[in-house]
Design a protein that fits this description.
Distance between the termini: 8 Å
Oligomer: single chain
Helix content: 25-40%
Largest sheet: 5 strands, mixed
Shape: globular
Length: 148
């Protein structure tokens, strides 16, 4: 990992922060709000903030498109949350409720849920429909997450 700066969108106030890649493991805090920049829990995505997180982050963004009424989505939620905590320096994890944020969901042609997507610098790099056990989810991430 080089010491070149990376831009991270704060999970609390959505401010863009630039920090050296080598400092990602040092629990960096936001220059504006003073809260942790890296989220160890999935960020709640919305039609309003989705683009900011997926285009302005130097880290890849893993998105779980889900809905409250979806059984497989509910079963996958704890796995997504665990992996978000384990991989907070490698990717940003975001959950988007497709019922509450239909504009974003339809914009990405989400037809089945859960649908998992990985974005890097605003571009979709991977997509998978369906819930996965933790080991397979981590394997899918290992195969598809762009290196930072």
């Amino acid at each position: 990992m080089t010491d070149s700066p990376i831009q991270i969108v704060c999970q609390s106030c959505s401010t863009k922060n630039r920090l050296p890649k080598t400092k990602l493991g040092d629990k960096p805090v936001c220059g504006k709000c003073g809260k942790p920049v890296l989220s160890t829990r999935p960020i709640v995505g919305s039609d309003v903030n989705f683009r900011r997180y997926t285009t302005d982050n130097g880290l890849p963004v893993v998105v779980d498109f889900w809905a409250t009424w979806c059984g497989p989505c509910q079963q996958f939620a704890p796995i997504f949350e665990q992996v978000a905590g384990e991989m907070s320096t490698q990717a940003c994890f975001l959950k988007l409720d497709t019922e509450q944020n239909q504009s974003t969901a339809s914009g990405y042609n989400i037809r089945s849920i859960p649908t998992l997507m990985i974005f890097h610098h605003g571009k979709e790099v991977a997509r998978l429909s369906g819930a996965l056990p933790k080991a397979q989810f981590k394997q899918w991430l290992a195969q598809n997450l762009p290196s930072v």
